[in-house]
Amino acid sequence: MSDTDVDGIDELRVAEWFSENVSAAVLPLRYELIAGGHSNLTYRVRDASEASYVLRRPPLGSVLATAHDMAREHRIISAVHITDVPVPETLGVCEDVNVNGAPFYVMAYVDGEVLHSDTEASQIPISERIDLSRRVAEVLAELHSIEPDLIGLGDLAKREDYLGRQIRRWTRQWEQSKTRELDTMERVQMLLEDQKPTQIGSTIVHGDYRLGNMLSRGGDIRAVLDWELCTLGDPLADVGYLLNNWVDPDEAPAGSSAPTLAGNFASRDELLTWYEKASGRDISNVNYYRAFSYWRLAAIVEGVLNRYLKGVMGDQEDVDLNEFKEQVETLSTSALEFLS
């Protein structure tokens, strides 16, 4: 950890906020930008007693506000914390931009492994991988079983026409963030609208549910992270997205690397069977949701590329922007294949 200034942190004012709002924190504080995030910035904060906390704030510079609402994300995690879905405990939220230049929130530090790719996943004992796979399916089913009204999230978003709302939202995101014209994205958008299934039920939708957004250990999930895309709507959107990130070892990932490439995880079919049994939901039309998730992720990655080009993603070196461009193209092509 460096003793120099950390981009995105006003160390004096944030320390003052900690002293007033996180009673257990012992000053002075040290900050470390946790690698791996391409959207909201996540920092590990260590205090003088070596206790750790986590601070989340939006990317540096101007961004699309709805995707980086700290108070909303804090509210969601606080609500979900009272359920059986594992999330970190929230410790406070600061909406006063005079403190750190942007809103932020703080939560407890949870120790565990984040499986961003097969490199990290290969360190997980083979004997634990099937258990972890099953827990991924079961925790998702548990999330989808929660009645939003019962935990204070009934007004988080509109419940009806989830896919229609999402298609409109990510079409706007694409139009605002695109760095070049890409016909495949427009073709997929039209097909998604034409083939849109009727929504059955409405639940909490995480929006980015995958191994790379979980802390795991011992074949179990210790915390589900990164709730910035959470909303209310069609639960099968989470299922389709999870399947796209659940790549067999002999399969080329459609986007970036996938943890399950390490092998000895459950198959997609096993994952679906566990989810179907735990949730009781009909998953027969899951390929539509896989197409939607590929297309949506392409729009998200394009937004990340746009922010890198504008220099608002913090001090991160060795970033190959061509990889982002190629990933967007690969994702949109994969979406088109599921719809054609």
Features:
12% strand; 2 domains; alpha+beta; five-stranded antiparallel beta sheet; single chain; Phosphorylase Kinase, domain 1; 9 strands; 340 residues; globular; two-stranded antiparallel ribbon; Aminoglycoside 3'-phosphotransferase, Chain: A, domain 2
pLDDT averaged over residues: 92
Main sheet specs = 5 strands, antiparallel
- Overall number of strands: 9
Q: What share of residues are in beta strands? A: 5-15%
* Count of runs of 4 or more consecutive helical residues: 11
**From the coordinates shown, what is the CATH architecture of the largest domain?**
Alpha-Beta Complex
Instruction: Extract low-pLDDT stretches.
Output: none
* Alpha-beta classification: alpha+beta
State the fourth-level CATH superfamily of the largest domain: Aminoglycoside phosphotransferase (APH), C-terminal lobe
How far apart are the first and last residues' alpha carbons, in Å?
Answer: 49 Å
- Percentage of residues assigned to helices: 40-55%
Q: Assign the CATH topology of the largest domain.
A: Aminoglycoside 3'-phosphotransferase, Chain: A, domain 2
Rg (C-alpha, Å): 20 Å
Side-by-side strand order of the widest sheet: 1-2-3-5-4
Would you kindly provide a brief summary of this structure?
It contains 11 helices and 9 strands. With 340 residues, the protein is of the alpha+beta class.
